[in-house]
Each structure stands twice: as C-alpha cells, then as structure tokens.
Protein: enoyl-CoA hydratase
Amino acid sequence: MEFENIILEREGDLAIITFNRPDAMNALNMQTREEFAKAVREVEEDEEIKVLILTGSGKAFVAGSDIKEFRATTPYAAHNIVRLGSIVEKMRKPVIAAVNGFCLGGGCEIAMACDLIIASEKAKFGQPEINLGIIPGGGGTQRLPRLVGVCRAKELIFTGDIIRADEADRIGLVNRVVSMDQLMPVAKEIAGKIAVKSAAALQLAKQAIGKGLQTSLQDGLDYEYEMYALALSLEDKAEGVNAFLEKRSPKCLCEGAKKLVRIKTMGNMGNKVARIPNLVDWSTGEVRLMSAKCNSCGTYFFPKEHYQHRPDCPREKVEDVLLPSKVEEALKDGKIEWKKIQAIMAGIFIYGGNAGHLSGQYLESIFGETGVPVVNVYNACATGSAAIRMAYNSVAAGETDTALAFGADVSPKGFLTAKSDNAVQDRDVIRWKMGGMPNPIYWALECRKRMAKYETTEEDLALVKVLMSEYGSRNPHARFKKSYSLEEVLNSVYVCEPLRLYEICPVSTGAAALIVTADKELIANADRAVKINATTMGSAIYGDPTIRISALSCPAVAEAPMLSESYSASRQAYEKAGIGPEDIDVLELPDNSSWHYLVYLETCGFCKEGEADRMLREGMTKIDGKIPVNPSGGFSSHGEALSAQAIWQ
Structure:
C-alpha cells in the first residue's frame, strides 16, 4: 500500500516505519494515524517480519498531535481517534522505538508503548498536554507511571516539562542513549539479536510481562508458569535444546510462532479447573482452540475468548459507521430516498447497550427522524428473519408501501455468552457458571448422535468446510477467504470432539439491510428487484429431540423432527409459496457448524434423514449440483453476526 505521511521499509526480517511529516515535526493528524495503523497491521500479518523499528524523519520522532486539526476535535470525535499506543502495545512482535528528536505528547505515548526505546542524544521527551488545558489521552497517564514511577510521572504530566535524553535515561524512560549517527545502527543491531530468537518464546515472554503488569504478583506468577509450560510444548524448545546439547546453532526457530498459545483459565467446577491452550494462526487471524477435559465429569471446556478475530471495525463504530453504510447501500441499490421508508424493522444489537436495543431509533437519528413506526426485535439466531418477516407483513397488509429491515452486530470476544451474571433473572447464567457449556458443546453432542446413528464420518464434516472455504474465497464480501484442503481441515484441532476448529463458524462483526416494497415505481426503477414468495417463522414442536441451548436435557424419546422450529418454518414456506423443496434452485442455510449443514438439509426436506452425507459426497450440494448450498460461503466464510446473518444470506 502507498503511504503519504509514513514510510514502510523492509530489510530482511526487519521492518522500519518512519513518521514522515518533517515540515510538521511529524505531528499526528488523522491521515497519519490511519496510515500508521494500516502499516502496523501489514507488519503484524507478514510472517517474514520478526521485529519492527519506529523512527521519525527530520528533527522529530513525533511532536504530538496536529494542533491545527486537534483544534476542532470534539469529545464525541475523540472516541473515534485511533489509539496508536494500544495498537503498538498489542503487537505480538517486538517493537523498538528509535527516537531521533522531539518525542512529545502522542509521540511519547507511542514510544512508551514500544518494547524498547533507544534515544539519540538529541532526543527530548515530555507530556505537555497540560499546557493546552487537557491531559494525555493516548496512554500517558497510565504507561508513564509504570515506567518511571508515580511521582516522576506526576511531575512531568503536571508541569508539562520537556526533558533531555540523558535525563530520560536516568529516570528509566529509555533503554540507552546513543549518538545521532549511531541511532539506527544500534537499533538494527538490537533488532538483529532479537530476530534470531524463537518468535514463539518472544511472543510468550511479551505476553507474560504485559499480563503481569495488569494483575497481582501471584496471578502474574501463575500466568508466567502457564506460558512457561506452554513454551515447553512447542517445536522451538526441542530445537533450541537439541542445538545447545549438540553444540550447534539452532535452525529456524519459527515453527512455534505459528502456534502461539494463549492459556486462559476457566472458572472453577468445584475444585476442578480446566486450563486450555489457544493455538493462533496469525496468517489468517483465526484461533485454533485445543480442548481440555474435566476429569470429574468428562465434559470438554473452552475459554471465553475463543475465536478472537480482528474486528472489521471497533465496537463503538458499529452504529456510527458499519450499519449506516449498509443501509445507504440498500437505498442506493434500490434507488430509494430515505423519506420513502415508511416503517423500520430493526434487529436488536443485543450486546450494544441502549443504542443496540433501540437500534432502529438510533439509525433514524443518523439518517433523519421522520416519525415512521420503528420496531426493534430480538429473536436469537432468527433476529434477521424476524425483521424481514415484519417488514414483509407490514407491506403485505397494506399498512405501508415500503419498509426497511436491517440488523447489525458485534459479537463479544469469544463465545456468545450469557447477557448478565444474575442467575435469578437469566437462567443462561446457570449453564455457563455450573455447566460450563458454550454453544459448540451442544452441537458436538448432536454430531456424536448423528455419527452413531447414520455413520457420518469425520471426512464428511471436513468436506463441508472445504466447500464453504472454496466459495468464500470467491466472494468479495466474505471475511475469511482462505481455501482449505480436506487434509488441512482434518489436521485442525478439536474444539469439541468430533467438531474441529475449521468446522465451526466464528462469532463476527457484520451488518445487513434490505428494503421491502410494493411501490410499482420503485420496483420498476430497482436494478435487482426480487419477489418474496413467502417468509415464515416457526417454533419448537413438543418431543423435538434436539438438545436445546440453555437447557441441559432433551426428550428421551423423539416425537418430533430435529430442529422442529425450522421444520415448521420450511413447511409453512412451501405451502405459502405453492412449491416444494424439489423446486428450490439455491439454498442458503445457517452453517454454524458442519453438523448444521447436514441436518438442515434433512430438516427442511431436501433429503430423508441420514441422507445428507450422501448428497454431500456425491456433489449434489455443489454450485453445479442438484441443490447448490451456501454459494456465499455461509457462516463458515463470514462468521456469525447474530442480528445481521439472516438478512445478508
């Protein structure tokens, strides 16, 4: 990518980012912040890069925020400013700040977020925000006391004084001071020493140090032990020890970095604690999760931070950026003005607080409040479907001519957890606190039942992912575009046996919108008007043998179909549309896991029970097959954004 205000260079396994606005003392304006964030992301995703050096051109490293632009910054806008220090600090790779000159305000905050600071003798440091009537806003009040002590930090922040490099060295703010002509050579020399070390061990050490600064000494020691134990399990340890004993230089210590492990601890089950390693594939941003088994009950447990994908946009920007952009696209696609919308059916953003619960009104406040009816709905995984159905019924009943249905969601980091900690008000708390059962456990239990009853194989489950990843790789809107082979899927770790990592969709960020209308003029003007023949909803039928999420039991004897709510909804749809499953040309179904892909084919009548595996093996569900299934790539390629998923599919 081309940058204007920074320079990104690569020298072997080293990357150098130079702030390059010398005429403005490399002051941080919005463009520079965005370019820097993108450059850091590029470095983070480049597996060939081991160490990053930050420096500045001209007389400054970074002299702070651009005051001209800063003058117009409002409290609201401040929330959307990219926090560069946090971006640097969260990098898994070591970062060295080579401070060449003025390092003030936001520049000092970026430097303090680095792992090492090498300063030239001409460097100057300070947090002078107090002189502008404000305080540091990029980590200065938090990182500075941790580096130099509370008293010295308060003195620097309260007075706004600027200190020279030798004083910064004396108080422990920098690692060393060198002459200007030696600044980059010394920084590169240190980077070279670091780059040949085990990348995995470096990441674990960095993580342990960072974690320890945020917790008690005892918790930090416990975390360090977990990181140490994890390092012992990686390939790099074996190679390093063998090389030492054989008196040779170690070979490439890079394999362990591909399986960076974050160990989390789950809550207690009595006195039983499950400790679980997360294996992270940083090339895709996907987390490979290994399961741990509780010896007391045989149940598999998983950490709450499962599937930590880099979000498409920060949580605070969902309603402000992502959602409006999708509604605007729908309006543009249909050639419809906002004032033509006569009703809004909004899928609730359940984890979004008040704005998320009133997402329809929030959207109106952005596009313009016109007094039309707004209904906010939450119906779990069917939230988007419910919004579409209400929009359709509003138009079909003649209540309105044109209605909008939309949904937006940012899932919590990890599983879709309970919405509170109050077991009296929220019974879902019980399955989390007492049962330790996130959603994939339910799916895995059902999958085991299927394998025993219909001889579904692990290859069948893996083949679903192979197909979905192939389609996702062709879809420009898919979030995960890597195409996987059968071998790669079968070699991915178990999340909950028999379901492997690549056979379960991650939680995700997303938004979608569509417009339902009976206005003949609008229909004629639209590029791709699609007629809705039926939109239905169903609920469970008594005797359904499906193990229900939030419940810990199911009927002993099946008296109704699996996933009977979908069975009911599909039969209603066939009846209303006057067609059968044999008349369907394309099928999009919710493939939360490979098991879902198979069972929905049977539940919705596309084959008899137990025959979905054969359909899959014989290619009948491929794009050129009898019934193309999920040509979009499905949840597997997009992730599950709860209230948006039915609408985008």
